[in-house]
Amino acid sequence: MSQRRVAITGFGVVSPIGNGRDSFWRSLRHGDSGIAAITRFDCSTFAVQLAGEVKARLDLPPDVGLIASHDPKIGFGYAACVEALMHAHIQSFDEQTLLHLGASLEIFDLRKAVHGGKPDFTALAERSFQPGAQPLQIPLDTTARLICQAFGRPIRSLTNCSACAASAQAIGSSFQSIRTGRVRTAVCGGFDSMINPLGIGGFQLLGALTTENHHGAHACRPFDAERNGTVLGEGAAVLVLEEMEYARSQGKTILAEVCGYGSTLDAHNLSAPDPDGDGALRAMRMALQDAAIPPTAIWHISAHGTGTRLNDEVEAAAIRRVFERWQTIPVSATKSMTGHLIAAAGSVQAGACLLPLLENVLPPNPSLRKVGSGCELCHVQQPETSFTGEYVLSNSFGFGGQNASLVLRRAHG
Question: What number is the average pLDDT over the span 354-361?
Answer without folding.
Answer: 97
